[in-house]
From TrEMBL:
ATP binds at G97, S98, N99, G100, K101, T102, T103. Involved in cell wall formation. Catalyzes the final step in the synthesis of UDP-N-acetylmuramoyl-pentapeptide, the precursor of murein. It holds the Pfam family Mur_ligase. This is UDP-N-acetylmuramoyl-tripeptide--D-alanyl-D-alanine ligase. The gene is murF. Its main location: cytoplasm.
Length: 425
């Protein structure tokens, strides 16, 4: 079956699904395969649960006319997304970066949805499967699409741009993330800049943080919209304060967010600038930013008894960990940091974990608890440092009942699942 015919069938369906546990009536099920599963085996179950069609790539699982056999399910999903994107012809804003992608995407969506019908990436579905799913979630009512793109190796952003064909793009920053795949920070810059390469080659628009020298230099000659507090920007957004939450000034308005950390200023500024570009009213921009509350373990502020918790446990890398600690030091009163291993650092893992250990020791933080094999191997003779090889060791040893009127920072890579600390409080 060619893509045009498959797209006609797709338009009969409510949505696309790849998990039979989440099937809804009249979905189109794509039988993806992984290292430990074969989606073809679940095609019949998907149809019985209400799916209108099931796309498979193994003939032996074709049990009805509703099962559509293709050469490769994943490639077909991607090709369908490309076709659908052309069918809709909706403006697409793509964003990537080492840190802050999802928060920035949520802020941009909050701002633009004040004026437009937007469709944005759900959660962090930002890879070779998530990007197609995001595109396929858009319909004729969508006025602007917002697509988050993640990458852990070279040519990945290039491939995702080939699928989404963005009209606009923004890179939050370049940091020490996924060094195992990119090889170095220079590799990160090259890999993330594949978005710039696509946009500039196709004469599309780039949003640029004028306070970031790398972004400014990388986009010379581009059709760009620059924001920040430098003199050459298209729109000026001035940082005011980050205690306790980030506040900024824009067109005479004071905007007070519910986000902690001065590192979130760039994320907020990007959303304001993009709102400005798309002519969202100033008061609507202010309303959107001020009412955005972070979720999903990203810079969440949680009150437990007399303690305040900064839960930033969705993910971590050396750049974001460094920024989080510098911000945490500014908190008043007793402070305890609970930090988990940072993953995907390859040969740099030992050095980067030692750097964070040294930084935490040097800061005005009462105690830092390190959890994970990498942090356990870091050297420190400070009495302010406690090291645990595993979460279970930490859980069985540390007594949280002694804590009163304390501020906690909880941060680590996703695989550490440090949100479990909340259960111990």
């Amino acid at each position: 079956m060619n893509i045009e015919n498959l797209h006609s069938l797709f338009l009969e369906c409510n949505s696309v699904c790849t998990d039979t546990r989440k099937i809804k009536k009249d979905d189109m099920f794509f039988a993806l395969k992984g290292d430990n599963f074969n989606g073809n085996m679940y095609a019949e179950k998907a149809l019985k649960k209400g799916a209108k069609y099931a796309v498979i790539d193994d003939n032996q699982y074709k049990t009805s006319a509703q099962a559509i056999v293709v050469n490769n399910v994943l490639e077909t999903l991607q090709e369908l997304a490309i076709f659908h994107r052309k069918h809709l012809n909706v403006p697409i804003i793509a964003l990537t970066g080492s840190n802050g992608k999802t928060t920035t995407k949520e802020l941009i969506n909050a701002v633009l949805s004040q004026k437009y019908k937007t469709t944005a990436t759900v959660g962090n579905l930002n890879n070779h499967i998530g990007v197609p799913l995001t595109l396929l979630s858009m319909d004729l009512n969508t006025e602007i699409g917002i697509v988050e793109m993640g990458a852990n190796h070279l040519k990945e952003i290039e491939f995702l741009c080939h699928i989404a064909k963005p009209d606009y793009g923004y890179i939050t920053n370049f940091g020490k993330a996924h060094l195992e795949g990119f090889g170095s920070v220079e590799g990160v810059i090259t890999g993330k800049s594949e978005m710039y390469d696509y946009l500039m080659a196709n004469n599309k628009t780039v949003f640029v943080n004028g306070n970031d020298t790398i972004q400014v230099n990388k986009t010379k000659g581009a059709n760009r919209f620059v924001f920040g507090n430098n003199t050459f920007v298209d729109t000026t957004i001035e940082f005011i304060d980050a205690q306790p939450f980030v506040a900024c000034k824009y067109n005479g308005l004071i905007i007070k967010s519910q986000l902690i950390g001065d590192y979130n200023f760039g994320n907020i500024a990007a959303a304001i600038a993009i709102g400005n570009y798309f002519k969202v009213a100033d008061d609507a921009i202010k309303n959107a930013v001020e009412n955005y509350i972070p979720t999903n373990n990203r810079s969440q502020i949680i009150k437990k008894g007399t303690n305040n918790i900064i839960l930033d446990a969705y993910n971590a890398n050396p750049t974001s960990m460094h920024a989080a600690l510098l911000n945490f030091e500014k908190q008043t009163g007793p402070k305890i940091a609970v930090l988990g291993d940072m993953f995907e650092l390859g040969n740099d893992a030992k050095k980067e974990h030692q750097n964070i250990t040294d930084l935490a020791t040097s800061l005005n933080i009462d105690k830092t608890i390190f959890i994970g094999e990498n942090f356990y191997q870091s050297e420190s003779d400070s009495k302010k440092v406690i090291q645990y090889k595993s979460f279970e060791d930490f859980k069985n040893d540390f007594d949280f009942t002694q804590m009163k009127n304390t501020t906690l920072l909880i941060k680590g890579s996703r695989g550490m699942a440090l949100e479990r600390v909340l259960e111990l409080l």
